[in-house]
Amino acid sequence: MKQFIFFVRKEFLHVWRDKRTMLILFGMPLMQILIFGFALTNEVKNTRIGILDNSKDETTNAIIQQLEASRYFDIVENIPSNSQLEPAFQAGSIKLAVVFPENFQEHLLHNNTAIVQLIGDATDPNTANTLINYASAVIIDYQNGLRGQAKMPFSINTEMRMLYNPQLKGSYNFVPGVMAMVLMLVCAMMTSISIVREKEMGTMEVILVSPIVPIRVIIAKMVPYFILSAVNIGSILLLSVFVLEVPIQGSLILLVAECLLFTITVLALGLLISSIANSQQVAMLISLMGLFLPTIMLSGFMFPIENMPVPLQVISNVVPAKWFYYIVKNIMIKGVGFEHVWKETLILTGMTVFFMVVSIRKFKTRLE
What we know:
Elements: H1 2-17, H2 19-35, E1 47-53, H3 58-69, E2 73-78, H4 85-90, E3 96-100, H5 104-111, E4 113-121, H6 125-149, E5 155-163, H7 171-192, H8 194-201, H9 204-209, H10 214-242, H11 252-276, H12 280-298, H13 310-315, H14 320-334, H15 342-367
């Protein structure tokens, strides 16, 4: 045990003595969480929506058919009652709900006016705002068609309500995404050079002849970066709440636990890269280029995954940041519990075990 503690202490000293490493570890997360607190507008299409039709008449059916015919929407759920709206949003099965009140056609024909309620998932405010605008445009087109057929002017008014983010702040979407990106890059980049650095410095031979077993070497190299990453998680959450005003609606304990799980996943991935790389430059290149682009492109926080070609949607499933982004957004913004994120947690756990096992096997191969 003493040997393990000494090895952990050695890794800490490596980190503390390198000012550039300290700058990357603590400077990058703070800068990125502030810089990426801005909104980006992206086109959305094929978005999952739900319909709550309390009237079920010819007019509502016609509007639903027009919504379904649009390339922007994919009706995946017919919601039976108002009480089922919130669970549908929490489960992530829909991003927009169209609610028709009772006697919709009767109000439209006799009073020349009717109301349609559009409810958007504003954890992604730009997407929610765009979806509501698209849905409103479809309803207005239907209304203009009625005006051309009838002598009396018909008017269908839309009533909008944004769940979880009524002020449409872009930081609500980007904070979870930046958390995934920062932890992915910093943890993977730092640990990816840990083992290969020993080879370049000539200290690997000392490790090889020491009585410490490979699995303890790998864990000892993870411990310092795990502790420093925990500090980063705390600073990111503090900045999110007090600077960017992003609330933590769900359990703080569950959120921190999921962040620590993702940290371990990424640290294990970084050690795997370090085990197969031949130099620090190669390890840095793989960790930066090989992880940065997939995290940005395929995690879902900047570009909707459902808009991508099917092959890219399949590839996105192997990106750990995708699952972590979903977990953080749902816990932090929607306030859901573990019952809604257990599948994503299980996937991250499986990835962690896989990366650890492969890292140990690769390390053993190099010892022989």
